[in-house]
Amino acid sequence: MADNVHEFRPKTPDTEKITINLGFVDLGQVDLMVQEGFYSNRTDFIRTAIRNQLERHADVVKNSTARKSLDLGLRNYTRQDLEAARRAGEMLHINVLGLATIAQDVTPELARAAIASVSVLGALHATPAVKAALADRTR
């Protein structure tokens, strides 16, 4: 029965994995906070610390986002979006703070024909071929 189930759009991950290096004393203090029950695990501690810092500097982020004309959040670029830009003789400037996704069915040729520049603070999801085609246009 599961043979007739089709995924229309692949699920976008809610998070991006990063790696950090901490000194032994800092790591020990994090582990102590977890052991004492303040946080459920190291990841919970680190996420909370990051959110607190982002909240502390929210005005700077807001002003910089506006000044740099960044799209905030999730921005998906479909094949139809790129084809429409190409037909109109326009080149897209992708400026995203968050997650920018270029659809899986976008060819490297279409991406080069429709995208002038890519600047993503966060993560860019696209096929390896599209990323390679836009490498010289990515900041």
From TrEMBL:
It comes from the Bacteria. GO terms for biological process: regulation of DNA-templated transcription. It holds the Pfam family RHH_8. This is CopG family transcriptional regulator. It comes from Bradyrhizobium cytisi.
